Request: fold
Amino acid sequence: MSAAGYFAIDRSEPGIWRATFSNPPINLLPPAAITELQAIITAAEADAFVRVMVFDSADSDFFIAHFDTAKAAEMSREPGWSGHSPWIDVVIRLSRSPVISIAKISGRTRGVGSEFVLACDMRFASRQRAILGQPEVGVGLPPGGGALEWLPRLVGRARALEIVLSGDDFRADVAERYGWINRALDDHALGPFVDDLARRLASFDRETLGEIKTLVNRVGVPDGDAIETSNRAFFDALARTAAQARRSQLAGMGYGERSDFELNFGRRLPDLQPGAAPVLSAARPT
Amino acid sequence: MSAAGYFAIDRSEPGIWRATFSNPPINLLPPAAITELQAIITAAEADAFVRVMVFDSADSDFFIAHFDTAKAAEMSREPGWSGHSPWIDVVIRLSRSPVISIAKISGRTRGVGSEFVLACDMRFASRQRAILGQPEVGVGLPPGGGALEWLPRLVGRARALEIVLSGDDFRADVAERYGWINRALDDHALGPFVDDLARRLASFDRETLGEIKTLVNRVGVPDGDAIETSNRAFFDALARTAAQARRSQLAGMGYGERSDFELNFGRRLPDLQPGAAPVLSAARPT
Amino acid sequence: MSAAGYFAIDRSEPGIWRATFSNPPINLLPPAAITELQAIITAAEADAFVRVMVFDSADSDFFIAHFDTAKAAEMSREPGWSGHSPWIDVVIRLSRSPVISIAKISGRTRGVGSEFVLACDMRFASRQRAILGQPEVGVGLPPGGGALEWLPRLVGRARALEIVLSGDDFRADVAERYGWINRALDDHALGPFVDDLARRLASFDRETLGEIKTLVNRVGVPDGDAIETSNRAFFDALARTAAQARRSQLAGMGYGERSDFELNFGRRLPDLQPGAAPVLSAARPT
Reply:
């Protein structure tokens, strides 16, 4: 077991790396964890014995809460291996790597947390504990890290629109029905299921796994430039007055803390409406 | 509440238009209702406060029964805003509009009725009351208003073929499993679910909603020319002897009336076979 | 009823051919059966009364076990009607034919057996008896007959990767949830359901069925060249040492026989690992 930073890596089983994310109190994803993810992928690819990386979380309430916006200024602008900015580099590298990635999801994973599991090759979630969401719309932003590219391909346009326009929280059973995750499993069965799958993959040839993945990738995998388009829209929207007004409401609601707000972020989004309802009532024709 | 014609529009809640379709006895869709839909979309877009349009029906047995073929000659040929003929203009405008559209489906919606809900951004249906179908094949025609373009993208080729080649009636739970609709909900839960979703959308910024939708639309939305191809095939097939022979059988069966035939149109399609079975039995080698 | 070879064809109902595959002991698919499939498609298309071909199996434990690799040398290299090699010719012709194809699956269908049902227009499977799998990865090979092209389009990338990278056995209910098959049906209901559907299709016009299928085929159907790419990768991998080492382990395990191994092929794949675990344990850093 090594813990370079946010991810503790268990290499105790041949062919398998298990990376456990931990960043108390609610597993926000800071820029430094993105840099660390780039390094983990590089190291796993450099070790010819590694077939599969399993990502899980040390906090069963939060897989990855969302991006740590308070640390946004620390974000590296250095293009990664793929030529893209760090987050998009992580997405592109995970989806192209001969090392197969599996997300084992317990707790909430929203925003970039959802986009991380979407970038993994497969994802399995606890029926009792997992909640997925793309709440960006509620703070006046489009998702900018891959959700808009992965979701319509995986769940179809209508369900993708429901997810990203409602910003709501989705339980694992609905996420499974929609195709957002591979499967929802009862909490006690999730660990054994993913272990069995990881060991199967570890028993196969890395060259064959990589070749099959490359052939599958001819269909249904977004390119980095498409994600960059959403990423630019995200940063452009950050500067808009409407988004700033919504985001300013987050302060004092428990944002970034182990709070009712973070536990139910998707459900609570309509609370952020900056006085719009009365304004609308007054101004609109009846 | 205003009722310009076939659609009564309830504007009582800020940001939400609820358009209820009514055309007794079975909610056939006449050409004039298509013109009205074009006007409703134009008006909703012109009102900067409108975020979401919810479409439902005044008849819980029929959402939109199907096109009113008896009035086909009244169909305008005038190209709409999109440059396409009126029905395709409705499809294209709904799918590109910054105003989000939701179909709330109780009762049957077949043919152009299914194609209408497919053109809405999202669709939710009563588990007990909704039935979807594309029965065109049974009267010798290909679907011509978008089904052949939306369905393979949403439900995959094999299920799309099952839907459009069988022409059968599909209950909401199967339609949900296939991805034809977002979700099937118990009848008593459908209204509250759609209300909650519409109010969420109404609490967000129209600019953000529209921007996200535009980004999602890079994948999985058909263009007007593709639908025009099917539309021409539909009208070409109308002139074929086989289609005319099948359609001539509709008279006297309860077509267009509140009848067992219209309640079970999909199931009844094999009844329309114009004497084919005995001919086939005699002529084919054994 | 005629039995030209591996497929017994029942033409007793107008418009419907029922082709039952039989090759004891476990319904391996030999090269000669591929040639026979090409001839069946040609004959069905030449009979203007045929609307639908239903494929099933005489063995309720095995639909098509997998390719009969012992007879690989008998494989014709003669390009078929489509200009592609025989197997790919079958895939392309089934997917383009005006005659609609339905797979009625009881028992196991793996490897080329899964690729055969994927090439059919629709597929329905026994909830109690059907098992689908693409076990190629476990013997060091990529699937080479269409799975890598059909699956990401039908089930999405993440589930496609799970299927072809795990090589595992999948029960019908999971295959239905993923969209690999149209529906899982209780064993007693499978026959009546497919009979009803086939009779519906047989009651419609062949020209209309073919026209609708052609219009659907604008989206979601792979071209022959894409499948050829995977096919070449399959044959290239056959020559690799790793694949040969894995395949050499099959001898003596019950491969090709009515054995526990063939009944549970997908589950048993990790058994084929050629001494990799100890090597890995010794060589890899901890």
